[in-house]
Design a protein that fits this description.
- This protein is mainly alpha-helical.
- Among the domains are: about 5-60, Multidrug-efflux Transporter Regulator, Chain: A, Domain 2; about 85-115.
- The protein is about 50% helix and about 5% strand.
- It has six helices and three strands.
- The chain has a three-stranded antiparallel beta sheet.
- Strand 2 (about 35-40) and strand 3 (about 40-45) form a beta hairpin.
- The radius of gyration is 51 Å and the shape is flat.
- About 5% of the residues are buried.
Length: about 170
């Protein structure tokens, strides 16, 4: 009894493995004796493959061959194109008039822009600016300045309030 992998069977039938598994689920009672699983791979016997193949082919819809139906080609009726041509000519004239108007508006805009521009600054304009120094507060004198070593130690240990630079 020869065994076939489900993926190999699906490829030979031209369907997906999902389709094969769905048909196996429908035919579970008839195929249970023909199906084995080994190491995560499902195998089916050749007899079971025949049953499964018949089930898949019975439910698969085969498209019918296309039938060539002659389609009558309508004969175009005579159409008077004079109104269409006149309409196109009037549209062309309108476009040319609009293009000329846009051109004149661009020229007018450029002239107005030139009138509104500020005059150029003289070369020595930025040289005449003087730099200003930023105000800095005076630093108070160090209260321990001018004291001897012993006096500094005495103030640091016994009178630390005298070491304040700002009176509060």
């Amino acid at each position: 009894m020869e065994r076939i992998r489900i993926s190999t069977l699906a490829k030979s039938l031209g369907t997906s493995t999902t389709t094969v598994y769905k048909h196996m689920k429908r035919l579970d009672a008839r195929l249970s004796a023909h199906i084995t699983k080994e190491g995560g791979v499902t195998f089916i016997t050749t007899e079971g493959a025949g049953i499964l193949k018949a089930s898949i082919q019975a439910t698969t819809v085969n498209p019918a061959l296309p039938v060539a139906v002659p389609v009558p080609v309508p004969v175009p009726a005579a159409v008077d194109l004079a109104p269409v041509v006149n309409r196109l000519e009037s549209m062309e004239k309108a476009f040319l008039i609009m293009a000329e108007e846009i051109r004149s508006l661009k020229q007018e805009s450029a002239a107005l822009r030139m009138r509104l521009e500020p005059p150029p600054l003289p070369q020595d304009f930025f040289k005449s600016i003087k730099s200003v120094e930023v105000w800095k507060p005076e630093m108070p004198a160090d209260p321990l300045a001018g004291m001897s070593f012993i006096e500094k130690v005495w103030v640091k240990v016994f009178e630390p309030q005298r070491m304040r630079k700002f009176s509060s």
